[in-house]
């Protein structure tokens, strides 16, 4: 769609916020309300725009939600809660930090964050991949689950807060701990509480585990999974995959697939 035609549809006020160069649409999100910004993204997506760059993002929520067609969104700034919520195949890259609930119930696609991410990252995600360069907050990976032939993937470059992988039902959660010193422990408590599916791979010792999980050594098959994800991770953040793979990893799995079965009458 031509720039002039889109400007006519947007109206004068909104048209001041957008421009197009070499096929990439740029949006100045400064002082834009999150509803206004997301309405614009949905319009661009409906018109078949494939690549959008958002500048001056500052706390706008739900970026990437409600899009029906493939789209690449580059975010410069700090997006608000629920980045990529219910996302279904788009690619979002954040050149900064993300707030809480990134990838909430996402179904497909990919989110790459070049900084840190907040609490409940990957909440209920059913598919797709999330790569976080730095640390994440509390309850990350909670209720992750596999759906059909989809398997959610969440890779964290740093470390995580308490209740990592809480009630996890499927998928892969990989914590690289790249900012930890040798033999330094992850400080997260209640790791894997209520976990009944999926797997957590973690580099470094864990301070405290939920009673529903156990720690095992990794097999060749596990290391193949870790290496594949580590290569993707390092590709996003320009890191040395050999250094990442030279470290020791543990495997955390559920003890039971129905840990609270005795609490129910059926």
Provide an overview of this structure.
This protein has 266 residues and is an alpha/beta fold. The chain has two domains: 1-71, no CATH class; 81-263, Pectate Lyase C-like (3 Solenoid). It has helices spanning 3-10, 12-15, 34-46, 220-237, 241-245, and strands at residues 18-21, 24-28, 51-58, 72-78, 88-95, 108-113, 129-132, 153-156, 169-175, 197-203, 213-217, 249-254. Strands 1-2-3-4-5-6-7-8-9-10-12-11 form a twelve-stranded mixed sheet, covered by helices on one side. The radius of gyration is 20 Å and the shape is elongated. The protein starts with a helix and ends in a 12-residue tail after the last strand. The mean pLDDT is 92.
Concise description?
18% of the residues lie in helices and 27% in strands. By secondary structure, it is α/β, with parallel strands linked by helices. The chain has 2 domains: 1-71, no CATH class; 81-263, Glutamate synthase, alpha subunit, C-terminal domain (Pectate Lyase C-like), CATH 2.160.20.60.
Defining traits:
twelve-stranded mixed β-sheet, alpha/beta, 266 residues, Pectate Lyase C-like, elongated, single chain
The radius of gyration over CA amounts to: 20 Å
β-strand amount: 25-35%
Give the end-to-end Cα distance, rounded to a whole number of Å: 57 Å
Number of domains: 2
CATH class group of the largest domain: Mainly Beta
Mean pLDDT across the residues is: 92
CATH topology of the largest domain: Pectate Lyase C-like
């Amino acid at each position: 769609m031509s720039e002039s035609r889109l400007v006519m549809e947007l109206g004068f006020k909104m048209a001041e916020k957008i421009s197009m160069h070499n096929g990439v649409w740029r949006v100045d999100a400064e002082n834009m309300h999150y509803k206004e910004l997301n309405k614009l993204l949905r319009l661009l997506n409906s018109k078949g725009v494939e690549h959008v760059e958002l500048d001056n993002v500052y706390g706008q929520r739900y970026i990437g939600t409600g899009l029906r067609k493939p789209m690449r969104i580059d975010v410069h700034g700090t997006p608000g809660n629920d980045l990529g919520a219910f996302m279904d195949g788009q690619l979002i890259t954040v050149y900064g930090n993300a707030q809480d609930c990134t990838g909430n119930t996402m179904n497909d696609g990919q989110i790459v964050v070049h900084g840190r991410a907040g609490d409940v990252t990957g909440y209920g995600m059913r598919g797709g991949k999330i790569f976080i360069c730095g640390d994440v907050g509390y309850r990350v990976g909670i209720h992750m689950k596999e759906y059909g032939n989809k398997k959610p993937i969440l890779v964290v470059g740093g470390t995580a807060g308490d209740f990592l992988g809480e009630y996890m039902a499927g998928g892969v959660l990989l914590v690289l701990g790249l900012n930890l010193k040798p033999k330094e422990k992850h400080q997260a408590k209640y790791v894997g509480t209520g976990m009944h599916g999926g797997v957590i791979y973690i580099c470094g010792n864990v301070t405290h585990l939920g009673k529903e999980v156990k720690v095992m050594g990794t097999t060749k098959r596990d290391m193949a999974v870790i290496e594949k994800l580590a290569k993707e991770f390092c590709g996003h953040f320009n890191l040395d995959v050999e250094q990442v793979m030279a470290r020791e990893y543990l495997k955390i799995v559920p003890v039971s697939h129905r840990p609270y079965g005795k609490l129910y009458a059926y």
